[in-house]
């Protein structure tokens, strides 16, 4: 395969499904391309691919000398370490514009919507390519995942409209029920090593020169995490020491109550109060209404660090 | 007006026409937006707007506190100096991805085609908005300008297809003749101050830490420049001193012969030989087949400087 497409490190369902769908679309447009991912499937992504009978992409961590499309990120920190030796053909994303640059013209489809897969769904329409039933199913799941079943502040009308179309194509009658099934899988913590829970959806950011890690665990009920919360707090403290971070924040997001408990280890606790107006106690704080790392947590923290 | 859209510094016809057309499209999609430009019209752009009866955008050099769409660039060096204080809603472009970043999700339409206006033509189609006759005319001219009437190495089938549609919509029977009329205006040098000729289509680049200026003058016959060539060479030497450049290159491009004579002032002449395999003599060199600064000159020089 001469071209590879892949999402960010610690791939989530959007990164995996967007890579699969973009490879499908581009193949039909005549490109020799395969999907890849920078790490193993999460339980949620595994559930989604198995539900619709779609094969998992290969895990690839080195891309030197390859032609690549990035999906679901445009930050060097989220990209493979040897991205500088790859030739970037394009980016499909829905985040803020990161620090990836290129030395050749490229193809970017980056929209301010809730999920990369919403953009890819529109690309199928634009290029007049029919979306296969199984691909429609995983695109639908990715949008439900990234938008927390339409509850996230990042969710837009375009995401909802895409899901309506995708539900029809994939033959899903009850979108809400599919979303809850998926989030129950995502919520499960039994038998998972603590570090894996911390890293399930974890990203490092550079905020005004400070290394800041932000993880997020989304559950259908916070009580699911009662038995592991102390271990999670201890592990982010260890991770902070290992990584030399200024701060690590772990968001425990209750998608039904619509808010997040944040576990905090930081050289300066006051950034949380600066960012959210809430004083942490015992290394944690409840952030009411905060569901989205990208739209709510990262911008507020960046301002607090600036 | 709450939103402004504008192209790069020293605006060319693509930057001006793309801003006008994007504002038209976005207005029809419900946004409160106006086109702007960072500098005065070139004679070519003036000819194009007058030919199709389209008003020139306002010259605006400060964008602090504004919501903005960038067109035809994604480099901080090409953007307004206070771009950091603006809120970037999106980018429509056809260059390599530059060093602009954002702290919020945004809308990017960046394609590896010959002209930003080719992307905007497709955006009208995507959003199902009819292209007005006058806008079609200026989009057509911008594509003819950026692709040097389809002769540039950057020209793609998408640019040609867009021009076919745009010629129909704008009622232009002879696209080739329109292009030649436009390039004759662009070629004219009488009565133009030397510095204006140097700066007519001029950009500064950062190449591995070196400040490199590259200007381009496209003419229908190099002999048009015989009377001013010595003055141009002297002026880029002055400009180099003023700006503290490592090198300034001025491409005198003959669009009929399909090549460029490059005038050189540099701390290290050998970069031209490294980049193009041609040894300069008397501060100049003929680069056969080299028509595109973006696709041929910049990538080769970047490699030579690396
Ligand atoms: Mn995503
Ligand atoms: Mn252009």
Describe this structure in words.
Two copies of one chain form a homodimer. By secondary structure, the first copy, chain A, is of the alpha/beta class. Chain A has helices spanning 13-28, 43-51, 116-126, 133-146, 157-170, 175-187, 194-199, 229-243, 270-276, 293-305; strands spanning 3-6, 33-37, 58-59, 67-71, 87-93, 107-110, 202-207, 210-219, 247-254, 259-266, 284-288. Chain A folds into two domains: 3-184, Alpha-Beta Complex (inorganic pyrophosphatase (n-terminal core)), CATH 3.90.1640; 194-305, Diaminopimelate Epimerase, Chain A, domain 1 (Roll), CATH 3.10.310. Chain A has ten helices and eleven strands. In chain A, the strands form two sheets. Chain A has a six-stranded parallel beta sheet with strand order 3-2-1-4-5-6. In chain A, strands 7-8-9-10-11 form a five-stranded mixed beta sheet. In chain A, a hairpin with a 2-residue loop joins β7 (202-207) and β8. The longest helix of chain A has 16 residues, at 13-28. The radius of gyration of chain A is 19 Å and the shape is globular. The A-B interface holds A 88, 91, 94-113, 126, 154, 294-295, 299, 302 and B 88, 91, 94-113, 126, 154, 294-295, 299, 302. β6 of chain A pairs antiparallel with β6 (107-110) of chain B. The complex binds manganese (II) ion (2 copies). One manganese (II) ion binds next to loops of chain B.
Short summary:
The structure is a homodimer of 306-residue chains. With 306 residues, chain A is of the alpha/beta class.
